Amino acid sequence: MFIFANILEAVVYVVDMTLSLYSFIVIAACLISWVNPDPYNPVVRTLRNLTEPLLWRIRKYLPFTYTNGLDFSPVVLLLAVQLVKMVIVKSLLQAIHSM
Questions:
Q1: What range defines the domain where residue 78 resides?
Q2: Helix (H) or strand (E) run with residue 66 in it
């Protein structure tokens, strides 16, 4: 039984690290958007491909995040990622440790 718990714990830690990495990707995409990046640059294209699907949905369902030329959808996305990390990841870890 402890082997199964260790495997689940490893999976939860990988999910936690992936969410942390995605937070850094969102921050990097925001920083790059402040300058006029070359849209054909592979780094810029990768960052946009990773972030725009979720940011587009946030802008679609929460239109107040884009006001007066300021886009607050990355802030909402970062808050959502942190909420997932704090609620789901920690809950899974507590469930695993109570086994």
A1: 2-97
A2: strand 66-67
Alpha carbons 5 and 93: distance in angstroms, whole number? 10
> So what's the pLDDT on residue 74?
95
Query: What pLDDT, on a 0 to 100 scale, did the predictor assign at position 69?
Result: 83
Evaluate whether 26 touches 77 at the Cβ level (below 8 Å).
Answer: yes
What b-and-e string marks burial along 50-64, b requiring 16 or more CB atoms within 10 Å of the CB?
ebeebbeebbeeeee
9-61, pLDDT tens digit by residue? 999 999 999 999 999 999 999 999 889 889 899 999 999 999 999 999 999 99
| Cβ pair 53, 25 in contact under 8 A | no
Phi, psi of 83 (to 5 degrees): -65, -45
d(CA 57, CA 77): 10
Q: How many domains does the chain have?
A: 1
- For the record, the structure tokens of 91 come out as 């809950």
